[in-house]
Input
Amino acid sequence: MRYADVILPLPLANSYTYRIPDELESLVTPGCRVMVYFGKRRCYTALVWEVHDRAPQAEQTVKELYALVDASPVVRPIQLRFWQWIASYYICRLGDVYKAAIPSAQGFQPKRQLYVRLAGDYRQEERLLALLDGLKRAKKQEQLLLRFLDLTHALEPGSVAEMPRKALLEQCDASAAVLEGLLRRGVLEVYEKEIERPRVSKEWQEIAMKPLSEAQAQAFAEIQTVFQEKAVCLFQGVTSSGKTEIYAHLIAEELRQGRQVLYLLPEIALTTQIMERLGHYFGDRLLVYHSKFSDTERAEVWNRLLQQEEPVVVLGVRSSLFLPFSKLGLIIVDEEQETSYKQQDPAPRYHARNAAIVLANMHGGKTLLGSATPSIDSYFNATTGKYGLVTLTTRYGDCRMPEILTVNTRELKRKKIMKDTLFSPLLVEKMQRALTQGEQVILFQNRRGFAPMVECRQCGWVPHCVNCDVSLTYHKAYRTLTCHYCGYTIGFPTRCPDCDSEELRLQGFGTEQVEEEVARLFPAVKVDRLDLDTARTRTAYERIITDFERGKTQILIGTQMLSKGLDFGRVSVVGILSADSLMNYPDFRAHERAFQLMVQVSGRAGRREQPGVVVLQTSQPDHPLIGMVQRFAYKEMVRMQLAERSQFRYPPYYRLIVVVLRGKQESVLQEMARLYADKLRSRLGDRVLGPVTPPIHRIQTLYLRQVVIKVEIAAGITPLRTFLEEVQQSMQAEPAFRSLLLHYDVDPV
Ligand code: ADP
Ligand code: ZN
Ligand code: ZN
Output
């Protein structure tokens, strides 16, 4: 008797055992999908994890699997190992990983297809011509046959004279009945054929690659040296130093060696710009994998990697880690500090940068982490010897770093110079000058909408989301108030529902308000806005970028969406409207992020020839972080942050695991969370904090509590995971606990 352990697309136990029916015995192999019944007669597509002959204990209750979906595996063994690692490190189920790895609608192309060819006898020209003579009265058949001969070059010496049946019918606009006629005459025959995947060309346009500058060539060589000793290299190159060109040379080298490359970018940085640049170099060896692609487009990439092992480069977002690579030589994680590399919801809550390192290792490949402002975590690993470190401190073409001018908005407000305006006189002046000279401007405000908060002047009432514990953001264009967590939307109230006052005032500001004021200050100038509201689709996003690139728009206003991976040639002024909103954020990484974001948007100024200027508006000009941004003092920022982190037991010194508990009834949740935290504390002591009520304590009608665990990095995660799962199981004995949802967030960002 043979059994298959399968993974179900459900967050339950890791695997379930089914009996393999005799007729499928030789066909069911790990990595194939099968149909199985589970629970109350529901049928699922499961993935075969292991095939064995170990009879399970409750033999008689074991069901038989119902059907085989794939004749050959759609997942490689190395991928299954990777899934296993994700499930175990991020404390989730294999089913969660399976669901994330293979989108449900994944349609894998059959490997076999129906083909039409000339039947043996008719491969001689005379017989064929004789037959054509006889076909004069069957016009349609004659036409189809002639077209077939034409399309397949059947009469040329050495021709195979075959083509897919489907393509033939489509291209000749012929019905199946006409083809049937020819088949009956015996001139054509249909057969099943293993289909050939489009092969990539052997040569690619290496010629198109730009030669590296001296500084770039040195960085390139240093990276290669690091890789002789270490699996991971952190590459810190200032904005516009030409990191992308260096990546291209590294990719070319891997392809030449016959290996594959994965080039990871955070979602928002994956633009046509970068696709075009790489497409130009690598032609059909470049595959793009975007989460906004349709399932069909994604399946296409999957199929190509599954069915051929050619050296290709995949440009993709974090989910491309799950593609069926066969021999990854290199993973490049660009903008490695980006927090969007971490998946938030649903599970698996993996960090693509860290997972990339593990995946590359499994393939015996290397990982290159690239950034102008690396995450403190990676920088720490690089300076303590775990990773190699290569730096590039000059911009390409020796273009100077932009000058950063800070403006004290508190002072200007006190002097009534900045009254009812978001723009300081200095920023207006710099913008004016740039625009008259035909240059462009970028304005950065990391908040979308018009105003983050509305408040009643009389009684202080603030409209809140009914599902979540957050205030609603005012969107002026639609006159609505919207929740940025769940999308809950109401019309803008005319009066305060509490005191009936009509005086509702706006607090703070977002990109929409910036746009409105720009229109007032520069009525003749073309302005665009790039944020989650305007760039909902890939096309909308690309249009905004392209218009700016081509100079159709002069001013681009945006959130952090515009800080990444874009290369604009004519931007001479960048305005950071409020540094305060970035710095005053209740998170231990707030300052690290504020620094990264400000340096990155600043980097948009003055690429290529012109040096640029950045106007940085803040009410805390003396804050040490502002000075560090001004001097691009990255190391200084790291030193300051590391001191705090070691004192308060944060990463990179400690590993954080946040246990999130959710429930409909707040009192039950609170009680259970307390009990749970106490159980953890009995073993982990003061490494356990909480339960705490997170800043946003209710999302989509569920209340939230968090228990934070800080453990020494050296402790490793396996014993801890075992303990956490034990505690969870023992808690589940409590009836009240069963109504709660619990998940783990390992290495939260
Ligand atoms: P980064 O990724 O470090 O921000 P890019 O790779 O986008 O920098 O390079 C900045 C600009 O300099 C781009 O316009 C790029 O085409 C140009 N550039 C970089 N390296 C070279 C090179 N070796 N030859 C020609 N142009 C280059
Ligand atoms: Zn009121
Ligand atoms: Zn909400």
Remarks:
- The longest strand covers residues 42-52.
